[in-house]
Amino acid sequence: MSSFAEVRDTGIFDFFRGRKSGDAAGRHYAAMLNGTMPIYSQYGTDIYSSDVVQQAISCIVMEMKKLTPRHIRVESGDMLPVGSSIDKLLRKPNGMMSISDFIEKVYWQLFLNYNSFIVPTYVRKYNADGSSYKEYTGLYPVAPVQVDFIRDAADELGVHFVFSGGYECDLLYSDVIHLRYRYSVNEFMGGNEFGQPDNRALLKTLELNETMLTGVGKALKSSFSVNGIIKYNTLLDNGSMDRAIKELEAHLANNESGFLPMDLKGEFVPLNNKIQLVDPNTLKFIDEKILRTYRVPVAILTGDYTKQTYEAWYQGCLEPLIINISQAFTNGLFTERERSFGNEIKFYPHELIFMTTEQKLALFDILTDSASCYKNELRTAFGMYPLEELKGQLAVSSNKSNAMNNEADGGGDNG
Deepest in the core among 49, 130, 379, 413, taking most CB within 10 A? Predict the structure, then answer.
């Protein structure tokens, strides 16, 4: 019997505001292959003061907001929609967020921390044979300041969350949806060996960018500083000098013609301030170097992209993120047995796919002529979710369909 807590539908806010972890007897930190302790403090924000970094991440997140999640079941290669409580939940994950708000929150946390956690709430129900199942009622993105991976006496893997208010809780890891970004050297978390973003290389580029911007700011300020010297061709005492300076300032303040009247006692000596700003090539180099970290082309950032640019960006940047979130939700919301029956969560990118009509028709003319795909496969390949009424129907071209109908009728005219 697991000793980890369950996040029921009732009292969700009380749970995250004030619940403390239970008795730690029999619990220990999960073993890591490198011998370190799986304790991870969140979160680093140094790089997010950069406007270029924020713009790059915003480009990705705004595209991901267009995703449409659906509960489907794969049967004999055909993808069928399932009108379940989970499918309804995916359209309205909780009382505070729309699905686009929810996705935006999840991905900002993912890029901020290289890890994003979602806690599902549920009502436990029972079948006639006494077995129980979860009926999910909410999905809540959470932002812990510390995450520990632990095992209980039954050797079940759990996660210990500590939040900013000091409250904490222990949950089964299988009951939590966990998205990881740049999952490499750490066994449990995305990021570096400490489960945090490794921004050392990016910070060097950002330092160059900051130095450049600081230099531009100083150059602009110097252009408004001393631009010339007034030389008086006579000896003036302190009082006379003060009066002369105030008189000059009054002339400057009231001057509208651009000409400054002076008497024979004064001589204006201009200073040639040559303000050297950063050349466009340097600006482009630094911006592109920052953007390459997030695989966002400048054309995507400015909105001046071609179909080929968008398609390359989708395949290289967005598609892996879509696969990641689909698999994470599938593993988090379905048991191993439910997954064995073909239950999956798919985030469909219908609004993201950027192919010409000609390209789509060329591809599926080949598939439909050979009757080698289902109609729902045809829809999902275009990024559209499947329809129940198309279950098991093969997609065939109109010419082949007409030929088949004629053959069934005996062929030729019956007149």
Answer: 379
